[in-house]
Write a structure and sequence with these properties.
By secondary structure, the chain is α/β, with parallel strands linked by helices. β2 and β3 form a beta hairpin.
Length: 208
């Protein structure tokens, strides 16, 4: 049972230039994702996909393999799926076939290996196609409203008289890791019936 980890890390971040290798408490940001993947002892290969030689150098230093991606997969519009697919297709040409693929973002320094392991184990022992990190919203989303013409417009009026403790919790993508069972086909969206959410405490989730 072969497992691949892909860490997509392009060099062209607009909000924080070179953020993937910015110093974060004494180490480049991406180092945390690489080290967590290594610590999990799950993966046959850990590959950083990048277009940046500086990122490549850091990735190798911290124990990952590197695949340089083409410019067409390094713009502001290319999604993670296309990058991971390119890595898989390239490895397949070299005889590399994997049963499970895990994408870890390079900006997830709070990710813990136990959640990677939990995500893999729950996916392996199910008929689901995916598992991913998720966390709960801090405030009840049932009370959400839009602003229309400068005034509030409720989305669901019937929930506004309910106490917060009586409302069902809602969750969102924590943006840390995504497991995929290769060959598993789903007719739903990624965050649908064929996905297992691995719930992580809110204090361990930050969007960088």
């Amino acid at each position: 049972m072969k497992k691949l980890c892909v860490i997509p890390a392009r060099g062209g971040s607009k909000r924080i230039p070179k953020k993937n290798i910015k110093d974060f408490f004494g180490k480049p940001l991406i180092a945390y994702s690489i080290e967590t993947a290594i610590k999990s002892n799950l993966f046959d290969n850990i590959i950083v996909s990048t277009d940046c030689k500086q990122i490549a150098k850091v990735a190798i230093k911290y124990g990952a393999e590197v695949q340089m991606r083409p410019n067409k997969l390094s713009d502001d519009f290319t999604g993670t799926f296309e990058v991971v697919q390119y890595v898989m297709d390239t490895l397949k040409k070299k005889g590399g076939n994997y049963d499970y693929i895990c994408t870890i973002y390079p900006t997830a320094p709070l990710l813990q290996s136990k959640y990677l392991i939990q995500g893999f184990e729950e996916l392996k022992n199910s008929n689901a196609c995916y598992s991913f990190s998720a966390t709960s919203f801090e405030a009840p989303t049932w009370w959400a409203f839009k602003i229309q013409d400068g005034r509030c417009k409720t989305i669901e009026k019937k929930y506004f008289d309910m106490r917060s403790q009586d409302l069902e919790a809602t969750y969102y993508d924590a943006g840390q890791f995504y497991w995929e069972k290769t060959g598993c086909k789903s007719d739903d969206i990624f965050f649908g019936k064929d996905s297992i959410p691995i719930i992580i405490s809110r204090y361990l989730v930050q969007d960088i």
